[in-house]
Amino acid sequence: MKVYVASSWRNQKQPEVVSALRAQGHDVYDFRNPEPDSHGFNWREIDPAWQTWTLAEYQAALNHPIARAGYKLDMTALENCDVCVLVMPCGRSAHLEAGYAIGAGKPTVILLSDGEPELMYKMARTCLALSEVVEFVNNACHYRAQGGFFVAMMDCCTHTRITRHETD
Questions:
Q1: Is residue 165 part of a domain?
Q2: How many domains is the chain built from?
Q3: Is residue 21 in a domain?
Q4: What is the pLDDT of residue 144?
């Protein structure tokens, strides 16, 4: 199963999630190390003073070759994934990635953390523990999003068939 893990560079749980899913045999995209001998995109590569940019400088930087290359790596992995995992806490980019996956009908799971409640997380499966995330991903081939539910599809592998998960 191809898994896209969306999170933050500052999230200390992200590497553990990537490792746990890889240990289950999944092909996991790690934005921190998207290719062999490659580190993930960072605004500092474009400008060490990126945090002082004006909006116009930020807008221009989105078209910088380094930004375009980083975007291409992430988007290709997101488009090709079978399931998306959002690891909280995280920021805007990770939420856009999860929203894209949900909109594309990809099973999506959120590993919750302390913070403000979010009503729209009802679009995805929410989990409190990494073990729940692993179980969801292991069985994600059985799910498709339909009207606020993850409903079982036809038997497609030897995993235990899951019949329905309500998101409320």
A1: no
A2: 1
A3: yes
A4: 60
Which CATH number goes with the domain that contains 26? 3.40.50.450
Residue 94 within a domain: yes
Alpha-carbon dihedral 122, 130, 29, 61, rounded to 10 degrees: 60
Measured CA to CA, the distance from residue 157 to residue 129 in angstroms comes to 25
Domain-located, residue 128: yes
Say how many CA atoms lie within 13 Å of 109 toward its Cβ. Answer: 25
Q: What is the mean pLDDT of each run of 10 residues along the chain (168 residues)?
A: 95 96 96 87 96 97 96 96 96 96 93 92 93 93 57 45 40
What pLDDT was estimated at residue 110?
Answer: 96
Q: At which residue do the structure tokens 């036809």 appear?
A: 154
Residue type, 49: A
Instruction: Count other Cβ atoms within 10 Å, centred on residue 48.
Output: 9
